[in-house]
Design goal:
The complex is a heterodimer.
Chain A (H helix, E strand, L loop, with lengths): L2 E4 L2 E4 L5 E7 L7 E6 L6 E5 L3 E2 L7 E6 L2 E6 L9 E6 L6 E2 L3 E5 L1
Parallel strand pairs in A: 2-11
Antiparallel strand pairs in A: 1-3, 3-8, 4-5, 4-9, 5-6, 7-8, 9-10, 9-11
Chain B lengths: L2 E6 L2 E3 L4 E8 L6 E8 L6 E7 L4 E3 L7 E6 L4 E6 L8 E9 L10 E2 L3 E6 L1
Parallel strand pairs in B: 2-11
Antiparallel strand pairs in B: 1-3, 3-8, 4-5, 4-9, 5-6, 7-8, 9-10, 9-11
Classes of the chains: A mainly beta, B mainly beta.
């Protein structure tokens, strides 16, 4: 299953609302997760099963969607949120990842 | 706190075999899938394969012919072997935990720090 993220990159300011989309090449129910990765670090799980916030993740992150269209929203961008974000599906093996969305400072 | 500590050779030559091992501490070893995921420099993430505590494996079809993942439940360790290396296998390799989908998050929730494996010709 191919996952297409958009945009591939974006520039935003602290306090902005940011939305990243992930489209699957076929329906994946709600078996979608979102990760944040900072340079030189392993990815961190933000959201699983499309909309469930991982323990310890700030509530400004939220996820929505089902089927083939999904969204990650950051309600008010903070300095520590500048990073690359990946979506990932596990409805069907093999697990696959989107190409990533790099969020940088405007 | 769950921790995944990984180790293995970081500089290899074409045609050699990559061997990495990951030790799990601070949590249960059962009821999880233990994965290897890689990331070429500056690129995205690719799932390599996984294994459970009973030794059942799944592999990415793109790598299946070259990959072996094994487990030692007595030591709470799992290992990756990837043979016939080429420069295209140069990447950071991560060991990762994933709960089952029927009762867990069905996502990769704990990651090792990663090992950069460079393959030279």
């Amino acid at each position: 299953i191919h996952l297409t993220q958009s945009p591939s990159s974006l520039s935003a300011s602290v306090g902005d609302r940011v939305t990243i989309t992930c489209r699957a090449s076929q329906g994946i129910s709600n078996y979608l997760a979102w990760y944040q990765q900072k340079p030189g670090k392993a990815p961190d799980l933000l959201i699983y099963l499309a909309s469930t916030l991982q323990s310890g993740v700030p509530s400004r992150f939220s996820g929505s969607g089902s089927g083939s269209d999904f969204t990650l929203t950051i309600s008010s961008l903070q300095p520590e949120d500048f990073a690359t974000y990946y979506c990932q599906q596990l409805n069907v093996y093999p697990p696959t990842f989107g190409g990533g969305t790099k969020v940088d400072i405007k | 706190q769950v921790q995944l500590q990984q180790w293995g050779a970081g500089l290899l030559k074409s045609s050699e075999t990559l061997s990495l091992t990951c030790a799990v501490s601070g949590g249960s070893f059962s009821d999880y899938y233990w994965s290897w995921i890689r990331q070429p420099p500056g690129k995205g993430l690719e799932w390599i394969g996984d294994i459970n505590d009973r030794g059942s494996t799944n592999y990415n079809p793109s790598l299946r012919s070259r990959v072996t993942i094994s487990v030692d439940t007595s030591k709470k360790q799992f290992s990756l072997n990837l043979n016939s290396l080429t420069a295209a296998d140069t990447a950071v390799y991560y060991c990762v935990r994933r709960p089952g989908c029927s009762s867990g998050s069905c996502a990769f929730d704990y990651w090792g720090r990663g090992t950069l494996v460079s393959v030279s010709s």
